[in-house]
Write a structure and sequence with these properties.
The complex is a heterodimer of chains A (about 140) and B (about 575). By secondary structure, chain A is mainly alpha-helical. Chain A has four helices and three strands. Chain B is α+β, with helices and mostly antiparallel strands and about 575 residues long. Helix content of chain B is about 45%, strand content about 20%. Chain B has a nine-stranded mixed beta sheet with strand order 3-7-8-11-1-12-13-14-15. Classes of the chains: A mainly alpha (about 140), B alpha+beta (about 575). Strand 3 (about 135-140) of chain A pairs antiparallel with strand 10 (about 220-225) of chain B.
Chain lengths: ~140, ~575
Amino acid sequence: MAMGSSRALLILSNFKFKTTASSSSSSKPFFPFKTNLGTRNFSTKIRSSLQPPDLPRLAETARISLAPNEVEEFAPKIRQVIDWFGQLQAVDLDNVEPALRADTEGDNLREDVPETFENTEALIASVPSYEEPYILVPKVLNKE
Amino acid sequence: MTVGRLFECQSFILSQFSLLCSDKERVFHVYDFISEVKNHRNVVLYCSMKSSQTQTATQEKQQPPKVKVPQHALKRTVDKFTRDYEAIIGIETHVQLSTLTKAFCSCPYNYGSQPNTSICPICMGLPGALPVLNSKMIEFAVKLGLALNCKLSLNSKFDRKQYFYPDLPKGYQISQFDIPIATGGYIDLDIPLEFGGGHKKFGITRVHMEEDAGKLLHSGNGAQVDLNRAGVPLLEIVSEPDMRTGIEAAEYAAELQRVVRYLGISNGNMQEGSLRCDVNVSIRPIGQLEFGTKVEIKNLNSFSSINRAIDFEISRQAQLHSQGQGDHIVQETRLWEEGAQKTVTMRKKEGLSDYRYFPEPDLPEVILTQEYVDSIHKSLPELPEMKRRRYENMGLSMQDVLFLANDMNVAEYFDATLSSGADLKLAANWIMGDIAAYMKNEKLSINEIKLTPKELGELIASIKGGTISGKIGKEILFELLAKGGTVKGLIEEKDLIQINDPVEIGKMIDKVISENPKQLEQYRGGKTKLQGFFAGQVMKLSKGKANPGLLNKILLEKLNAKS
């Protein structure tokens, strides 16, 4: 559970925007969370028709805890991220066949041949709470 | 007996009656019976329900239900249930594939191994690990899709189904959401004779590939996780809501088990968890197009639990309707409690879960060529349905057909026996009778008995041709099953050849008659039953080898001759 939220944090905190020629001149790295860099100057004013996300719900599903002031602060920033992607809405898709996926490579398949991972001790050692032979976890009542 | 228990018992009776009455006419006879019963002051029926964990629905023996019931309550529920409502049942089945490695990594999977020994960074979902698809998984998925008469998607993809739970290492399950590998199929099956018989066809909505989660065991204030099972390949089969009774649902599950075993893609053991079924049950007034509120039932560990849980749930819902409390039926997940024989609320569904599906970026598209699909199609074995139809066309009774086609190994044995030229009906009888009994006693599978199909054919031919008598045949069968050997060899070794020569038999009869003058007189005096005595003596003299038919014919002649 902690892993999912830390992944999200990593992604968001490392997000850098390369803006297109038609929009703002800002080339500063974009940090949606409080950083020491101070200035948050957003000259991109792109509004798309995409629905703004319900931030509290989004945070809940991603298991990221946000204080109310953080919700207020981040909502417009996340809105801007989405609107930035919203530029894609302008593309005319009338004559384009929907693709299942965005890759061009074919399958990358593996033969059904067993291989035991040698260093399972290291894997177990990295588990925070382990009582031979089980991984210990707190009680969770509901799935999702 | 509590009221709750009464209702359970009466709904059990109802379900049995409704199952036995497969058409409307006979249902009305049930009503007549019930109203007759109503007229008696003390109707005492005792309830006894046996729960037994056996492999297929066909092997279940239903106990005649007996319950102590107030007449008016019984009649009310019978009316409402049988006349007004029909049940709509759909089943989601997860089949654990018997590949050597997991779906996305090369870890082996062995049921019952020491926890957390078959793990690696990929199936543990550690940062940086990437999934690589097992080619066998695709092969098994295509096999099943074809066997279930589905349309295969030559292009499909994997998606992430995201939710948080301790047994799900990555925080998402790699599955297939909107483009499954197979859709729109059906399955044919035959309902066992003891439940009414008949041929049924149920739709299959889709089949898709996904990975299993680890195992979570609750203990004290926390829980324990074993990741051996995390990443094991699964095929999820979703049926159309075509089933109408617990028996149909149980037989559907049994047929899926038969199919995956025939295909060799899974051992389909409900007890081991390699075949898991969740059922969805709703009821609606007959004639109504809209479905009623759907209730999901989990924790079904055998075909008979599927049957009983559904029947219980149908009557629970019917009862609520009949009491005007139809709105008490809510969309929820209930657990089947084997001990109490009832379903209980697990949790109320608070809206549909949002799994935030999106295409799995770490896996490429799954592309099948028509040639690949065709080559797999050619390699499919004869499936249970085809076998049943072939056996039926050969002239076997439905009972024989269902038995012989149930286990793929038994069917193979039977086919091999026939190919050595044996008589159809005799071969079926031997396998279903004495051989099956032996297997059951010694707890052996048909692959483990020492009697080969060829020798069985030889045995049948020897009896049919008169070389040995039927009785002798049964005797040497046991030795052949236990120790093997050849029929010809045993016949020679034990000097078992039947005596078919009338002259020789005549001589033996003469001897016996001359040695038993008193019985002869009694016979001639009217005690014709003594024929049996003489026949027995001749058999003894011939060491069991005299041809019984000939013996009796000649004996009768001789006994009735000199008078």
